[in-house]
Every structure is written in C-alpha cells, then in structure tokens.
Input
Amino acid sequence: MNLTKNLIGAGMFSLPSGLKSGSVLPGLMAMVTVCTFCSSSFILIAFLCKQLRCESYREVFCKAFGQRFGLLIDGFIGTNCFFACVAYTILTADFLQKAAEGLLGTVPNRILLIICNTCCFMLPLSHAKDLSALRYTSMLGLVIVAFVCLGSLAELGWRRNRVCTPSYTAHALHLNMGIFRTVALCTGAFQAHYNAPRIFKQLGGDLKAHAQTVVASFSTALTIYSVFAVSGLGLFGDELVGNVLRNYDPDNTAIMMVWFGMAFAVIFTYPLVFTAAREALVGSQPALQEALRKQPLLAHAPWPC
Output
C-alpha cells in the first residue's frame, strides 16, 4: 500500500496534458515503456542488495566502487529527495489553499499555511519510528484517488458524444517534440526508487515477495494513470491545462473536496520521501551517525532496529 501510494500522487493530474503533448497512442506507449523500465530497475536494486548482502544504496555503491564513493550516492539521494520534499510542501499548500478558497470562501496566508502544515503534520509524521502504520492512510489516499478517477470516468461517459470523440480524433496520433514532455511526466510519476532498499528490507530480504509487490504496485499505478490520462484528455481536449483539476468549476463542492483530499494524501506520502533524504544525510556525516547511536530521539531519527 505504501509503495502504491508513493507512486500514485499529485503527479497524475498532469498526465492528461502529457497525452495532449505526445498524443494518445504514442503517449500510452511511452507510459507503458517508462513503467516497465522503472519497475524492472526497482527489482534490480533489490537483486543487487541480495547478491551483495546490503541494505542501502550506500552499501551497494561502496561495495561496487569503494568506500570513498559512498558520499557521492548519499549526495544524489539527498538532493533528489530534498527537491521532492520541497515539491510536496508546495503541492500541499496549493491544494489546501484552493480547498479553503472554495469551501470556506477565504484564502489563507500561504507562508502561514506552509509553516503550520510542516510543524503540525509533516515533521511529526516524518519522525515516526515505524512508517508501516502509514499503510492505513495510504489506503485512504488511494480511495481518494479512486474517487477522482471514477468521477472523471462518470463525466466522460456522460459527455462522450459531445466532446470526447473530437478530442481523441484530434490527438490520436502525432509525433513531435511533445513526446519528450510526456516521457518526462511519466518518469516523474513512476519514481519511487529511493525507497527500494527499505521496502526490500521490510519484506525480509525476500526477492520474490519484493518482485510481486513491485509488479502489483506499478501495474496498479499504470492502470490508474492511463485511465485518468485518457479520460482527462477526452473531457477537456484543447482546453486542457497542466493540472486537470483547474479545468473544473471552482464553485463545485465535490472538486473542492478533491483538492482537500489530495492535500491529505500528499501529507501522508511526504514521510516516505523525507525518511530517504534523512537516511542519506545521516549516512554521509559521521557526526550524525554517532548522534543517532547515542541519542536516537534527540537526533530526530528512527531507533536502530
């Protein structure tokens, strides 16, 4: 559940515009190709961990290239996760601000919203000792995503004779530079590799269980992504903007609840990214490793297993 929710997030709302840029058939082919590469590499990471008897990227990289290169991989992971965490913070603020504007008729101060959300929700959740409890919020987040997808499909069925056929005809097949935007959006949508060693470890080092988990999660994500992208393009066609939610009526209460629900989903996905960044930072600094061993709570890190 955590891996599936880690994959399926706010990035799905940009995928319809990805199909608009790359067209339907090439765009779907690109989505399947990216999903295949990402899922197979996710399994490959676990295979390397098993073969080299490692539990982290740093250990694998050090065994392959030497101890002095461990800092390099921690830097890559930390930088990637840092910007991902920044993006999650911005997205949460956008979702909450839009929901408050539609439901309460007021626009909260953005800076205050970010500070309160970070201090009250994101950081406390990220400092939890065991993130397995997030599977319940991940389930709820997936229910919210399912609600959004079913809603778009229902509207697609209702409006299919008026707008959908022309939209699909106009964007069925054309090859131009827009396909690279489609590939970029799909790559971001299927990115969760920073958690591959941790998931493999949580599965007891069972490569078969890891592969089954990856296949199930990535297949679910691919199905939801493709259905949502096709329905979003069919509904709005040439008028489609980057975030498909912005195409809906801002006075629609159901859509405002979707904005709020996606904020909830992002908040409870954040710890999965934050923890990977924290582990990379701790792994690169001996002083932080010493603090982790002596004062795990004071160092804001999980207790050693």
About this structure: The chain is about 75% helix and 0% strand.
